[in-house]
Each structure stands twice: as structure tokens, then as C-alpha cells.
Amino acid sequence: MKKISAGLFTSVDGIVGEPQTWHFPYFCEELGAAVSEQLGTAGTLLFGRVTYDSFAGAWPGREEAGEADAPMAKAIGDARKIVVSRSPMTFGWRKSE
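-> C-alpha cells emitted (97 positions)
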């Protein structure tokens, strides 16, 4: 049986929406390790369309660039990605459905 794990960026004061606008200034080694532990070890990732589009627009290029976050980008790219959407989608990122 597989394990289900959920992750969510939440600020100390409970803000959840639009983490891209507030979490980057606070990103540190410990946060990176926590994210890597969860996302980097997952065999399957479940995304909504907006999050998928954001990830697909960023992570493949990071993997290709080969910089410090390339191992994480590869782990996410290698994982099976299931996207929940109300409209049909065309996928360009490997292992996406």
C-alpha cells in the first residue's frame, strides 16, 4: 500500500494563497530540505491545473540548466504527475497525465 502525503506552504499568520509572492524571501536550507524530502521522494504527484502549469513552466528548465536545484527538478520530472482540470490539456512535461 502506498503512503499519501500532503504539503502546503502556509505563513505563520495563516496565509496560504499565492505563496510565490511571499515565501521566496524566507527560503532557506531547512525549508529546501523539507520540500526535497516530501516532493523529491514522491512517486506520484497530484496537481491542480494552475499549480501544474506553474511547475511545468519552471522545473524542466531548472533541470536542463543543471544548477543547484537540478536534482530536485529531475526528481519532480521523473515522478508521475496527475493533473486535475475541468478542461482538456496537452502535456509537454514527461510523465504527465
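The two ends are 22 Å apart (CA to CA).
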